[in-house]
Design a protein that fits this description.
By secondary structure, this protein is α+β, with helices and mostly antiparallel strands. The protein is built from 14 helices and nine strands. The chain has three domains: 12-130, Endonuclease III, domain 1; 132-167 and 184-220, Helix-hairpin-Helix base-excision DNA repair enzymes (C-terminal) (Endonuclease Iii, domain 2, Orthogonal Bundle), CATH 1.10.1670; 225-344, Nucleoside Triphosphate Pyrophosphohydrolase (Alpha-Beta Complex). Strands 1, 5, 6, 7 and 8 form a five-stranded mixed β-sheet that branches. Strands 2-9 form a two-stranded antiparallel ribbon. Helix 8 (115-126) crosses helix 11 (173-186). The longest helix is centred in the first third of the chain and has 17 residues, at 80-96. Residues 35-186 form the HhH-GPD domain.
Length: 346
Amino acid sequence: MTITKTLTDWYSVNKRDLPWRRTKNPYHIWLSEIILQQTQVNQGLPYYEVFVSNYPTIFDLANAKESAVLKLWQGLGYYSRARNLHTTAQYIVKELSGRFPDNYKALLKLKGVGDYTASAIASICFDEVCAVVDGNVYRVLSRYFGVKTPINSSIGQKEFKALAQQLIDKNNPAEFNQAIMDFGSRQCKPKSPDCSVCPLQNDCQAYINNSIANLPVKVKKTRVSKKHFNFLVFISHDNKTILEKRTQRGIWQNLYQFPLVETQSSIKYNEMKSHLKTFPITNNGYDRLSLFNKEDIIHKLSHQHLHTKFWIVEIEHLPKQSILIEKIRDYPVPVLLSNFIEAFNF
């Protein structure tokens, strides 16, 4: 029995009943694939359902405000996915009359769509024989065939893509792609997979050579940087505060935040008082400065760790650009700030 048939047989018995598997609508498939980038199914499923409920067609998504899309995305992270989702929806509606490209090469031209997503949409929606390669696929193939080429190298990406393309079921590419991804997610797990019930056990090179924990191979990650963030949470006598839109490029682009003071190291009360003197808002003084969290809140991102303090600044008046505190949850904010807003309980 070949690995291809073994995987599709396994999938026929073990596949999960997920809403995007009940359709070939490219809008729904595209939406699910973008959400599931860097996100596990159990976390992404509620977001998918909310997006489909709020934006049942690509026309609805294209007509939405970006801030509304970012608000629905809040908590998923990697916010560029949401911005690209919105931009691509507008492009498809305006330039393609709402019709998705129907092949891999054309799909690749869409913003936010790479090899994996284009392959998934092309195979699932249009039966194109185009193999998907994601983290789950890398893991299954590297272990089964004993491939030690780093999966995050350009050579490795080409090697695994070619291998997956050789194995794909040409008569049912959609079924095979979903089978190998599901198998990697549920059976060939990253840590401590249950090899005793694995249908690929007899021919799996990683199992035979006791190298499961060592595969797949990755080259060392970029060094993670450390930053110190101090958010100023202004609260006026008439229950207003200040949120600023982050317009510069970055992971939090177009999200909102409290005024930020970035420092070289963790600072104390008197140092924060000195920083406050540089804010025009506090030219006429303020009532009280207090620290919400005694210990830094450490928010870990893929490339940096944010050591964060939230400083509460009670003040009599705030300028016109302030917002009512009761409206604060209407704004899309990073999960770090969302968690604070809930904990502070304005």
